[in-house]
Amino acid sequence: MKQNNGFAEIFNRTGRNVEMIKVKNQLQAIAKNLATLSKKVESLSNQLAKTAPAKKIKAAPKKTKKVKKAVPAKKAKAKAVKKPAAKKVKKVKKVKVDKGATVLSAVSSVINKSKKGISIAQLKEKTNLDPRQLSNALYKLTKKGVIKSMSRGIYTKA
């Protein structure tokens, strides 16, 4: 037995702390139990996903206290509010792309039809592609030499 900071430490024949060995064994047992539990939870969630269709869970409505508002003596007449004039929307011609056509061919055909070049925003509207798809297509076409960049965001045929 050794005296260390007021606590007695007990060592076995090999010089190891007995208490630390016990703690180590307990931690290993806990780790095994956690591993088996996590496997069981995974299998249960997989079974649940297969058997029951996903349903949205509605939150319980919050209970609020009703407060009576003071009613003003005179009601003012509501002024007529003019609605702002509707802006005229410019119609964009959508490019008809064959069903077998690729993204690269669709983008290159739109760029080839433009005389002065076309911006990325116009390409998005005409091709209905996601920004990531459009960016990748523009990158590949410029590397192949099919198109070139006139300035930032403006592309034309090479």
Say what the CATH topology of the domain at 103-157 is. Arc Repressor Mutant, subunit A
**Largest β-sheet summary:** 3 strands, antiparallel
Oligomeric state: single chain
Order of helices and strands: EEHHEHHEE
CATH superfamily of the domain at 103-157: Winged helix-like DNA-binding domain superfamily/Winged helix DNA-binding domain
* Fraction of helical residues: 40-55%
Unreliable runs: none
Descriptors:
158 residues; Arc Repressor Mutant, subunit A; 5 strands
Present the secondary structure layout.
Elements: E1 2-4, E2 7-9, H1 18-51, H2 103-113, E3 118-119, H3 120-127, H4 131-144, E4 147-151, E5 154-157
Antiparallel strand pairs: 1-2, 3-5, 4-5
Helix pairs in contact: 2-4
Description:
This protein has 158 residues and is an alpha+beta fold. α2 (103-113) packs across α4. The protein starts with a strand and ends with a strand. β1 (2-4) and β2 (7-9) form a beta hairpin. It has helices at residues 18-51, 103-113, 120-127, 131-144, and strands spanning 2-4, 7-9, 118-119, 147-151, 154-157. The protein is extended and about 90 Å long. The strands form two sheets. Strands 3-5-4 form a three-stranded antiparallel beta sheet. The chain has a two-stranded antiparallel ribbon with strand order 1-2. Among the domains are: 2-51; 103-157, Orthogonal Bundle (Arc Repressor Mutant, subunit A).
